[in-house]
Every structure is written in C-alpha cells, then in structure tokens.
C-alpha cells in the first residue's frame, strides 16, 4: 500500500513539474522582445514597433506603453492595439519590460531605498536616450501610458520625468504613489479610464481581493490631479453611450488638461482593446476606445515651449 501511495505521489509530482515546464515554456515563447539596453547595471528588455512609413528625415512621436502587473510587453501590444495607430499616424511605439516574476513596476517608494525606487524611472529615461540615438524622435512628443501597475508607473514618470514626458494616459491605474512624493518640474496632462466594476483596483478605493493596498478612490484622485495641474474649469463630456461618463478639466496651467472616463460596469481591462478573460478581470467595454482617445489627447498636448 505504501509503495502505491509513493508511486502515486511521484507521478503527481511529475505531472506538476511537467505542467510547470509547459507554462514556463509558453511564457518564454509569449514574452517576445526585440531590444535590450543596460540600465542601472542590469540588462533591461523592450519590444519596439517602427511603422514602415517611418521617415528618418522627420521628427517622429514616441509612445511608451507599459504593461500591468504579471503582464508582459507583447501582451500590452496585443490588447492595446497601439501598433495599428502607429501605422496610421506614423509614430513609434515601445513596450518596455518590467522586472522579477511575475513582471512588475516599482511605482512607489513604499519600503524602498530611493536607488531601488527610481530604478524603473532610470530605465525609461535610458530607453528614451537609446531610442533618440537610434531614431529621429521628436522630443516635444514623447508620451507614456499603461494598464494597472503600468498606469501607476506612467503617473510616476509624470512626476519624475516631466521634462521629457509630454503627457500620460492610464487605464485602471494603480496609483500608489503619494502626492507628497510627486514633485514634477511642470504639470503634466493626463487622460484616464477606469471601470466601476474593477475588482483589482477598485473604483471607490481600498484594498482588493488581489492586492492588500490602500488604493485611492479614483474620482477623488483624478480631482486632486486636476487641482495639482491648476485646472479651473470642470465640464461633463457628452457621450454617445450611457455606459460611459466623461469629465474634462481645462483652463489648466501650461495646458495640462485632465480628462477622465468612467466605464459603468467596466472591469480591469483596456476599453476598446483586446478582451481579457472576463472571469479574471470583468467586462471589457467596446463602447469607448481608450487607445484612440489617448492618441487624440496626446496630439493636443505636446511639450510646452518655454
């Protein structure tokens, strides 16, 4: 009997190891990148998309699109559809890769020394330098955006690299950086999207079933962001679908407008993009296209000329 139990356990362990190897292999296969640089003494990777229409004689916008926690560059590319817009409008897109496993971004200084806290910021700064060496990047039109942890990272970049990032976009952003830690050299425009049924980063704030983190109430956080940008006017945006509610904050310092779209019933996903499994993230709304609206917002908000 003991031999049978031992044999069963060995078979079970073998199956578990085999499944783990298969999943590891699939992850390596899916986590495709095509570029690498050294930053802070560490090799960092990225996925770059340059449209066929790229003309080295023309200054070209750069869009930095940042994946969420436990995601990866190729998946961010797939779900956001930035490459399609890059083909249409002629800009370059780069999808940087986070660190550790699962992949993540250090988007706050909680419990970390400053050198570790700013490591990812330095990577993005070095990545911009690298791409400017390789391509004719327009320094006034460099934009960052991301999903979840990537949205929080985009916000951190607006605090630390306001001299390089013209505007940011965020979907289901995990804003764990405190306002005391955000001291940008200039107010940075922002466009954001968040679903009311987001169970990962709750719309009304507080911890979630995924993370024991005191997330802020998103509408309140956006209002504070608009105040930090010195916005004087708040207006509702007329939307074609009752599923979507939009608010614009304008008459801001240095044209640093803030736009916020609430997706009623929306989950922790990219509106208008590739749907993620509903049992994990909830509904992916197709009533609004976050990528298209971000790009239009970015077009209207280049780096100010001083």
Folded structure, characterized:
The protein is of the alpha/beta class and 306 residues long. The chain is built from 9 helices and 10 strands. The protein has helices at residues 2-30, 73-80, 82-89, 114-117, 119-134, 149-160, 218-228, 278-281, 290-299; strands at 35-39, 42-49, 60-66, 92-96, 137-147, 167-171, 190-195, 233-237, 244-250, 258-263. The protein has a 10-stranded mixed β-sheet with strand order 1-2-4-3-5-6-7-10-9-8, with helices on both faces. Strand 1 and strand 2 (42-49) form a beta hairpin. The chain is globular. Residues 14-29 have low confidence and may be disordered.
Q: Could you outline the blueprint of secondary structure elements for this entry?
A:
Elements: H1 2-30, E1 35-39, E2 42-49, E3 60-66, H2 73-80, H3 82-89, E4 92-96, H4 114-117, H5 119-134, E5 137-147, H6 149-160, E6 167-171, E7 190-195, H7 218-228, E8 233-237, E9 244-250, E10 258-263, H8 278-281, H9 290-299
Parallel strand pairs: 3-4, 3-5, 5-6, 6-7, 7-10
Antiparallel strand pairs: 1-2, 2-4, 8-9, 9-10
